[in-house]
Each structure stands twice: as structure tokens, then as C-alpha cells.
Amino acid sequence: MANLASTYRNQGRWKEAEQLEVQVIETRKTNLGADHPSTLTSMANLASTYSNQGRWEEAEQLFVQVMETSKTNLGADHPDTLTIMNNLAFTWKGLGRDAEAIELMKDCVQYRTRILGAKHPDSLSSHLALAAWKAEHSGTSGEHHQ
After folding, report:
1. pLDDT in tens, 12-66
2. Domain boundary, last residue among 31, 54, 74
3. What digits encode the pLDDT tens for the residues 120-143?
4. SS3 114
5. Residues whose CB falls within 8 Å of the CB of residue 134, separated by 6 or more in sequence, listed in order
6. Which domain does 131 fall in, by range?
């Protein structure tokens, strides 16, 4: 079910993806528990579906919940936690909270570089996003979008 939901998400079939993702979350919560890594992955997938649709507030709620649980259960520097951190930063950017997004992405870049290495694709991706956001933000004449 999770794979089919992912296929729907990749095809932009948001409603179908969302429906399946909710089912997967509920099933995993029942069978594995709310804090299980697979449950958290399902919640992050639903948050991604929301962010892909510009449903930033809903995405933020889920990403924050998943990140806090992942930090507690897996650790702040676990690759899964860092993926959520990266996605939450993008969500804050989507909400127009540029300064917060930049600060969170700075943390993500530092962790990913230390844990995964500077040349890892995830490290590079976060670094490029951070550089672009900083350049964009510095071009706003000191305005802060919060």
C-alpha cells in the first residue's frame, strides 16, 4: 500500500496518495506503534504529499511531529531525522518563514556533512538549497519574511 501511495504521489495523484497514506499510517500505528520508524516514514510521506500540494500548514504539523519523535527515538544526527529536518526547512520556506528555514537548513547541512560526508548527494542537495536561499534572502534588502 505504501509503495502504491508513493507511485500515486510521484504521478501527482494527490487525493489517491493521501487516502492510501492515511490508511498506511493507521495500520502501522495499530500494528507497530505510533513511534515506530516505519510509522514515522508513512507520516513523513503524507507530509510530503501535503507540501507537494502547497498545503504547508498541514505538512509542517506532521514534519514537526515526525522530527521530534525521530530525534527522541533515533537521535538528532540519524539520517532519517536529517531527511525530515531538510523537508521541514523546505516547508518553512514554502510558508514564507525564510529566516527559520535558513537556520534549520544550516543545521541540516552541518549534520549531513559530518555524518554523511561533504560529497554525499543529500549533503550536496541541502548545501545547494541553503546557498540559494541565502542569496535570495540577502537580496531582499534586509526584509524578513516570517
Report:
1. 999 999 999 999 999 999 999 999 999 999 999 999 999 999 999 999 999 999 9
2. 74
3. 999 999 999 999 999 998 875 444
4. helix
5. 102
6. 76-146
